[in-house]
Structures are given as C-alpha cells and as structure tokens.
DNA sequence: TGTACATCAGTGAACGCGCGTTCACTGATGTAC
DNA sequence: TGTACATCAGTGAACGCGCGTTCACTGATGTAC
C-alpha cells in the first residue's frame, strides 16, 4: 500500500533499543503508523470496517495511544481523506505534465491518472468520496478537493485557450463535465475493490472514447486544440 | 421516506387487538418494517450506521426477531440494494416514457430521473453503489443492476436507430458513457446527503449541457435524432 | 361448526465480544543553566 | 559536561455500552377431519 508521504525512517530506527529487538517506550512515528493502518483496514473492509482500536493494535500500541494524535475516529478518517486529496492532486498534476506534448494528449493522460488513482488507492478513494464525511464541515477537506479539481480546470483552460476566441466554451463547465465523467467511470468500473462492475473494455478506453466524442461536440479536434500524439 | 413497494395494510390492521391499542403477538409485516427501518437508518447515518439491533428496535420488536426474515445484517442490506435497483429501474423507465415526445427529450428526462433518484433516495443510492456489497457474489443484485442499465441502453438504441445507417455509433458504448456521466454527476453533486458538493448550477443543467455536447460529438442533433420539445 | 394439531413468528433472557473512552501513571526526551 | 526539571508520548487497567447471536419458549394462525 502506497501511503503518499514517505516514512520518516530515522525516528523509527532510533526508537529501537537494539537489544533483542525490543521496542523503546516511544513509538517514534505513531501518527503516520495509524494512518497507514487505517488505509490498510479501509482497503480490506471498506470505510466502515476500520476502528480506532484496531488501528492502534495494528500499530502495536495501546488503545489509548491514538488519542495523543487524533481527537477521535472521525478526525483520523478526515486526515486520511485530506492526504488522499493531496496525493490525488499530485497524480493529476503528474498526468497533465504541463500539457505536454499537446493539451489533448495530456488531458487523456490526466483522465488515465484519475482512473489509476481509483484503482490503485481504493482506501484513499473511498475515504475521499464514500466515507460520508460532511465536506462542508471540514474546510481543509473542501480546499484540498478544490485544489485537486483546480488541476482539471487548468487543463481545460489550456485547451480552451488554444481555440480561436469565438469558439471557446466555458472552461469551468468543461472541467465539471470531465470530472463527472472520470468520476463516474472510476467509481463504477475502475475502483480497486469488490464493488467494481464488469465492463466489456478497459475503463481507460471507455473514458478516452467519451472524451473524444465530447471534445468533438465542442468543436475541438487534434487539429484545433493541439496535435494528439 | 418512500420505500418503493406499498405496505400491505390489511395484515397490519389485523394484527391489532383493538383493546387499548395493544399490539398482537404477531407483527404482521416485519420484513417490510425492517427494510423501512434500515432505509431510515441508512439515510440518517450512512450505510455503516445501521445495525440489525437498531432496525429491530425501530420496528418495535425483540432483537432476535429479524433472524426469522434475514440470515444476517448483510442479507438485509443486500435486500435493500435489490429493491433499490428495482425502484431505480422503474424511475428510469418512467423518465424515458417510451421515448415520448422525442428520443432526445426522453433521454434528457431519463437523466433527470437518475439525478432525482440520487437526491430523493440517498439510502437506496448508497446501499446500491457505496455499501461495498460485492456485486459479483450477489447474482440477483447484478441482474437487477443490469436490468436498470438496460433501460439506459434501450434509450440509446432508440436514438441510434433514428440515425441514417452509416452514422450509427455503438449504442452500448453510448449507454455506458451516459451511465458514467449521470452517475458521476449524481454521486458528486446531486446526492441527497451531507457529502454533496457545491455546484454553480443545478446538477440537471450540468447533465443536460454535457449530454447535448456529447450528442453533438456523435453528430446527433434535434434534427437528426428526433425533435426536442 | 368444532376440535386437535402443526407450523409460524414472535419473546426475553443470556452470552461473549470488541469498541470508545477515561484515568492516573511513567519512561523517554529535550532544555535551561 | 552534568544536573534538574518540564514536557511529551506512551502504558495498562478499567468502565459502560451496544451489538450479534443463541436458546428454549409460547402465543397466534392455519388446516385436516
């Protein structure tokens, strides 16, 4: 399981006495370990099947220890979702890769990054979108989500900007359409857990085809919006 | 909360002695009452926040009683999802209304029915799509889902059939695209619970615009595919 | 129409379990001087 | 460089709670004759 940030190894190593492999009194990096445990549990049993107590057990720590780092279970879940959005934003950004070699190619690749994220990080994905966290109550969550969406919007703006002024559709609408389309395909067909539905093609092919048809509908072709590879 | 099927009133009434409003020994319609209670609980607290015990309590029955009707909690959840798909299929069918007055208008209306279902039946929606039920292991669930999708596909077939033979896109692909698009908008922006995201327009407007652009990309206009109202 | 009997759909008490949470505590770490 | 002290990040025992599940049971209903 990739957990997004890298582990701080030094404190972990320093927290071992070295004698008989006994762990020192301090864990060294419990916060990270709890998040990592939560991701594993969510991936195995869904967002519901993760408890504070079990995360503590997985981290090899007493059930009271997590309270030093998170107010309660929901706070941990929100933190997982937050990291998920940050991770997600990075992957979309990498997929877009500043629009190289052409905006249209980059857009397809960014869609692929969306699907890859849903497939490879089911725990993050469900914490972000299906854990029932009230977005409006977690400002930081909402902002992180907005930043991730901003990457999609940026891409659409780049595509729109390459069109002649008279033929530019609103980039915001285009971005929302692309988001919804990617998200629908991701959560129905590309998700990395047992709820994935069968499909007579790859999710990537489905999304690519839909994107091409949609862009065609906006009057955008490889010629008008930048040459596709 | 609309629960899809109508209650069987007769047995409920007959289960009352009439003396002091005391309930008779037999509940009369416990199975339905449990499903109804499950829907309320899911709507209030998400798919995770529903327990067998609490459903029994809500139905005014001992905690052992549900075992006469459902093997376990998951069986009840699967039954809720199954009814959800049946209900969903009916609403899509009603939205399509046999393609009247024109296939394109009917398709938009069917998309609206998708969004309305997500908004008005959050409990069904999350049981169907977000409860983590393994679709592959519940054959009846999968079949019910396929039947609902069949309504979308039928609509797309009708639209395709109205085109000149040389210009017909594959209806299956078109239906999958429409499904993913509707589902993405529904689960991000139209859902009826706290996880709904803000949008600078109505979800219906967003879906309608996307559909029009998409159909345009397929070369389908009101003229070619039947006149829109 | 009445009676005997089988079956159905509940009761309610009991159980073990794991969870969330608290509490006073204590070993380890960091810092002032 | 050493010492005293404050703070940090854990322990582990304990608690109340609600859940899932079982059990022998029993009142209500349906049916055969």
- Percent of residues of chain A in beta strands? under 5%
Helix/strand/pairing class of chain A, anyone?
Answer: mainly alpha
Pattern of helices and strands of chain A: HHHHHHHHHH
Largest interface: A-B, 48 and 47 residues
| Overall residue-averaged pLDDT value of chain A | 88
Tally the helices of chain A: what do you get? Answer: 10
Radius of gyration of chain A: 21 Å
Describe this protein's structure.
Two copies of one chain form a homodimer. By secondary structure, chain A is an all-alpha fold. Chain A folds into two domains: 48 residues, Arc Repressor Mutant, subunit A (Orthogonal Bundle), CATH 1.10.10; 152 residues, Tetracycline Repressor, domain 2 (Orthogonal Bundle), CATH 1.10.357. Chain A is elongated and about 65 Å long. The two termini of chain A are 32 Å apart. The N terminus and C terminus of chain A are likely disordered. At the A-B interface, helix 8 and helix 9 of A face helix 8 and helix 9 of B. The structure holds a DNA duplex (33 and 33 nucleotides).
Brief summary:
The structure is a homodimer of 229-residue chains. Chain A is an all-alpha fold and 229 residues long.
List the topology elements.
2 copies of one chain form a homodimer.
Chain A: H1 9-14, H2 30-45, H3 52-58, H4 73-96, H5 103-120, H6 122-129, H7 139-161, H8 171-190, H9 203-217, H10 222-225
Helix pairs in contact in A: 2-3, 2-4, 2-6, 4-5, 4-6, 4-7, 5-7, 5-8, 5-9, 7-8, 8-9
The first copy, chain A, binds a DNA duplex (33 and 33 nucleotides) through residues 24-27, 30, 51-54, 61-65, 67-69, 72-73.
